């Protein structure tokens, strides 16, 4: 696929050490004040990549990132954990995409969310509340949070707007766990990470030996230290670290395996080509911003170009184009330094432009 894709002959040069993409990431990471790991590849695997800068401030200032550095993926968890599990259930006939969930998932029946569909949850068009505030609204007990999320009012009529919200992923987590008969971390390991050989990828809290190679995120007043190996996202932390909206940790090495599989799904992968093809096309009917299932049509591109992305609040990003036969990743822990987003946004946009046009 990559040999016939437009511009495929340029990829080795783009991926070369000291090449255009490497220089762009080096200079962009310096401008953003972060360390960074990048890689790009095609259906055959990784073509190149590098790491720049240091892992952070203080005691992290002498540590350099690398392909084996664990990053808090934040919302990339939606892609590497929740999305493939939904795909398994869809391909096996257990997850209808277009039938209101209240008709076949009993917990939703009688609540406002009974009218939304799984497709709307995956494309962020379900009209769910745009905020979480779980502890404030429901307390700290997992059962009370689940009950509150399932019974919450809708923010707007389903299908009328694209509005990104973690609530969609949390509700879908409950649904996937009920249909799959196990917690999400077990399902993701069984259906996605183990089949792809993603041995670094897991939910936290991470054990000490793995936290030692993890990029730190923000300073936590309650512990007097930077979060490192404990999920940054407060909703996922409240839920014990395992949720569909955030909570997973991974490395560039593992994410390269995952992205390669989107271009060349291994035989017997239970969420293979049908789910990938269904997801990587516009699902929002002309509403903006255009989205696929879980994935976002990359800013600066038209949906017809077929370049999709997902970002993580901590500073992570994944890109994929089946049309061009290539993928890319860019991992930082920007939130460790500050929440100023424009320098990272500039780097992400330039990175996408360089790799995908």
Sequence-ordered SSE layout with sheet pairings:
Elements: H1 11-15, H2 20-32, E1 36-42, E2 45-52, E3 71-72, H3 77-91, H4 118-123, H5 134-138, H6 142-151, H7 166-180, H8 184-193, E4 202-203, H9 208-211, E5 219-220, E6 225-226, H10 234-238, E7 248-250, H11 252-263, H12 273-279, E8 296-297, E9 307-312, E10 316-321, E11 326-331, H13 334-337, H14 342-356
From the structure above, extract its key features.
357 residues, alpha+beta, six-stranded antiparallel beta sheet, three-stranded antiparallel beta sheet, 11 strands, globular
Description:
The chain is an alpha+beta fold and 357 residues long. It has 14 helices and eleven strands. It has helices spanning 11-15, 20-32, 77-91, 118-123, 134-138, 142-151, 166-180, 184-193, 208-211, 234-238, 252-263, 273-279, 334-337, 342-356; strands at 36-42, 45-52, 71-72, 202-203, 219-220, 225-226, 248-250, 296-297, 307-312, 316-321, 326-331. The strands form three sheets. Strands 2-1-11-10-9-8 form a six-stranded antiparallel beta sheet, with helices on both faces. It has a three-stranded antiparallel beta sheet with strand order 3-7-4. Strands 5-6 form a two-stranded antiparallel sheet. Strand 10 and strand 11 (326-331) form a beta hairpin. Helix 3 (77-91) packs across helix 8. The longest helix is centred in the first third of the chain and has 15 residues, at 77-91.
Structure described in brief:
The chain is of the alpha+beta class and 357 residues long. It has 14 helices and 11 strands.
How many helix segments?
14
Radius of gyration: 19 Å
Strand element count = 11
Write out the strand line-up for the largest beta sheet, numbering strands in chain order: 2-1-11-10-9-8
Q: Could you estimate the helical fraction of the residues in percent?
A: 25-40%
| Average pLDDT rating | 96
Largest sheet: 6 strands, antiparallel
Q: What is the H/E string?
A: HHEEEHHHHHHEHEEHEHHEEEEHH
How many angstroms does the end-to-end distance come to?
A: 18 Å
**Secondary-structure-derived class:** alpha+beta
Beta percentage is: 5-15%
Low-confidence stretches: none
* Shape annotation: globular
